[in-house]
Each structure stands twice: as C-alpha cells, then as structure tokens.
Amino acid sequence: MKKQVFDYIICGGGASGLLLVNALLEDRYFDNKRILLIERETKNSNDRTWCFWETNPGHFDFLVKKSWPKASFKSKELNLNFKLAPFHYKMLRSKAFYNEIYQKMESHKQLTLLKAEVLNIKENQSTTRVKTDKGTFESEKVFNSIFNPKALCEQKKYPVLNQHFIGWFIKTNTPTFDPEKVLFMDFDILQEDQTRFLYLLPTDEKHALVEYTLFSEGLLQKEEYEKGIMDYLNAQGISAFEIEEKEQGNIPMSCFPFEQFNTPSLLNIGTAGGWTKASTGFTFKNTERKINRLVSFLKTEKNLNQFQTKNRFRFYDLLFLDVLLKYNEQGSKLFERMFAKNHPVTIFRFLDEKTTFLEDLKILSSFSLQQIRWFLSALVKRIF
Ligand SMILES: Cc1cc2nc3c(=O)[nH]c(=O)nc-3n(C[C@H](O)[C@H](O)[C@H](O)COP(=O)(O)OP(=O)(O)OC[C@H]3O[C@@H](n4cnc5c(N)ncnc54)[C@H](O)[C@@H]3O)c2cc1C
C-alpha cells in the first residue's frame, strides 16, 4: 500500500479544524503544502450557534447572521445597559460557516478531504500516525481537534464545570425585542443553589434565541432547562410565540493542561487543546486568535509542542473555577460585583486576555471582602 504522507493532517473538521484549514488556504506560504482534513460527519447543519465579541471589521462578517452594538446585564441588584463599542457582539450560525469553508476547499488542490472515522493518533519517531477506518496517514505536523474527555474526567486536580444550556429560537406574533441589544446574562431568575442565567439574542423585533444556561458540575434533565425558558418568557409577558428551532450544548470549563498531550509532531487544538476559555466556555474567537498565531508559528518550522498557549489568565481562570465550584450558588453575586464595579468593556477585554496586569488587579479588587477571601483561600490551596 502506498505510504500516505502529508505535510499537515487535521483531525476533525469542526470550528477549530476549519478555522485552521481556512487560515492555511488563505496564506500563499502554504500553497505547496499537502493538507489532509479528516472528518467523520457531513458538516452542513446549524448544529451550533457561535457568538463572540470583536472589533469591526471581523474576518467572518460576511457570514455573520446578526451583530449587536449594545448589551445588558441583569441580576437581583443590578440592571445595566451599555454600549459595547469598540466591540460588537456577533452571531455566526454554523451552517453558513461550514458551507463557506467546505466550498472553499473544493477549489484548492493541495487539500484532501477525507470522510472517515479517526481510530487513533500515535507518535512514531519524528512523525505522528493517524489511523482511520479508511487507512493510515502520517505527518510531521498533525493537528487534533477530536475532544476526548477521558483525561479530564479521570483527574481531580483541576475543577471541571460545564457551561450547559438549551436554547429556543422563538418567533413572537408582535414586535417584542430590541434588535440592537443582546441580553448577555440575566441572573434575576431562581438560582436553585447554582449559577443559572438567561441569555437572549434578538435577531429582529419578533425573533430571538433564548437560552437557559448554567455554569455547574452536573447536567439537568431536558425538561428543567425548558421550564426555565418558559418561566422566563412568562415573567416577561411573552406568551404568544412559536419555537422555530432548538439548540442544546454542554461545553467543558476547565484549566486542565491539555497541552501536556502535545508532542513535536502533534498539536491539540480547539476544545481538545484547552482553547475553551475556562471561566466562560467561549471558544470560537479564542480559537480564531490562536489559529492566527499558529499560522505564523508554522512558518518557523519549530516543533509543535513549542507553540505557547499558556499565560497568567489561565491561573485566574483556575482560581475562579475553584471558587465557582465551591460556592456555585454565589456565581450570580460574583458576576454582579464584577459588572457593578468595572466598565463592561474592560470586562470583555479581561475575558479576551488583553488587559494589563494593573487592570487585572483592579478587576480582582472589585470583589467584596468575603469574595476576595474565597479567592485568597483558593490561591493558598493552589500554592501550598
Ligand atoms: C451548541 C453549542 C453552542 C456553542 N456556542 C458557542 C458560542 O456561542 N461561542 C463560543 O465561543 N463557543 C461556543 N461553543 C463552544 C465551541 O465554540 C464549540 O464547541 C466549537 O465547535 C468547538 O470547536 P472544536 O473544533 O474544538 O470542536 P468541534 O467543532 O466539535 O469539532 C470537532 C470535530 O471532530 C469531529 N470528530 C469527532 N470525533 C471524530 C472522529 N473519531 N473521527 C473523525 N472526526 C471526528 C466532529 O464531527 C467535529 O466536526 C458552543 C458549543 C456548542 C456545542
């Protein structure tokens, strides 16, 4: 059998795999590289809705379904409406994204798309071998986006929470929503001793995605999320509506060092690489940023495990998760305090890991004395 060697192999053609493919195809430097993308599914549905904030212009603006200049935050004690400038909050539906990148691949001969199941990925001296149900492939540079939760579940050192939710795309009979404004978090709902909030994204006056979301350890029964949405809509006086689509998700929130599985010829990317922001579950924009850095890094021809993904924000996230796991019923108060004491745009920059150390300290000092004690206690436990 002919040896099937590629310059780059990408396992998994979801968000991170396709962001990488797209970046490689857009850069002439990689014109002569042979790239193999292995994906087991036909990716052509709205299996997820990615939202993120960024400054204009964004790379995927032509695919974005809706962009909002304003946002709001609500809790028992706080009702905040604010402009997002210089950011816009954006919604990108996966179908448009998949269609665009899969179509782009067709006109690039250097890329081979293989619809196959990846069975295992193993290091073999200076290369990595990818075994699939359609053959075995080898490369000095393999990128894996197939998430295996085993290592995460089998350890106790790093807390693991989940951002889990059900969302309904609803259509009301009468104009109901402000299409200029996204409701980022509404904690003014029953917390049930956990961190629960509503998230509402109006695409026009009669259409919105409304999600009942938790940051917690265990998942709920489907009925409980849906009851949360119903209760919320009733409380808002929204009773005449139809559900056009539903979405469900569970995003792991953890600071587990996934990079320990990287080798000179294998880099884990996307959720599999730990590129999900541990304190929020946001992954898409984070991944786009890391892919941009990765493309420059690839030109250095260095070993893949030299690609840096760790910074001081990982440690903040770790402490935040330690506290959120222990005091899950206090999540709304933690977010309330953060939004009450800081400009929301500074919080978005902080979550983007773009603030200075002094700004970080200011944000950390905005918590109440009791909350700061929780963080200090988590810090002490992590250090000693
Ligand atoms: C419903 C939902 C909504 C989300 N919303 C947001 C959001 O608003 N903002 C945000 O930032 N993040 C969001 N996320 C989190 C994150 O952005 C997504 O999960 C994102 O798709 C992660 O990208 P990825 O490449 O790591 O994984 P995926 O996109 O899941 O890609 C992995 C790919 O690997 C393929 N695969 C798996 N196993 C195999 C195998 N054995 N062989 C071959 N192929 C395989 C899968 O079919 C898949 O296409 C959401 C997640 C979900 C589930």
Topology:
Elements: E1 5-6, E2 8-11, H1 15-26, E3 35-39, E4 49-55, E5 66-68, E6 70-74, E7 79-83, E8 87-93, H2 94-106, E9 111-115, E10 118-124, E11 127-132, E12 135-139, E13 142-144, H3 150-153, E14 160-172, E15 181-186, E16 196-202, E17 207-216, H4 222-235, E18 241-254, E19 266-268, H5 284-298, H6 312-326, H7 331-341, H8 344-351, H9 357-364, H10 369-383
Parallel strand pairs: 1-12, 2-3, 2-13, 3-9, 6-15, 13-19
Antiparallel strand pairs: 4-8, 5-8, 6-7, 10-11, 11-12, 14-17, 14-18, 15-16, 16-17
Helix pairs in contact: 1-2, 1-5, 6-10
Bound molecules: flavin-adenine dinucleotide.
Q: How many H/I helical runs? A: 10
- State the strand order across the main sheet: 7-6-15-16-17-14-18
Structural class: alpha/beta
Overall geometry comes to: globular
Highest CATH level, the class of the largest domain = Alpha Beta
At CATH level 3, the topology of the largest domain is FAD/NAD(P)-binding domain
Mean pLDDT: 97
How many runs of DSSP E, i.e. beta strands? 19
End-to-end separation in angstroms reads 55 Å
Low-confidence stretches: none
What's the helical proportion of residues?
25-40%
Total domains = 3
Bound molecules: flavin-adenine dinucleotide
| CATH architecture group name of the largest domain | 3-Layer(bba) Sandwich
Instruction: Please give the largest β-sheet.
Output: 7 strands, mixed
CATH level-4 homologous superfamily of the largest domain: FAD/NAD(P)-binding domain
The secondary-structure element order is EEHEEEEEEHEEEEEHEEEEHEEHHHHHH
- Calculate Rg over CA atoms: 22 Å
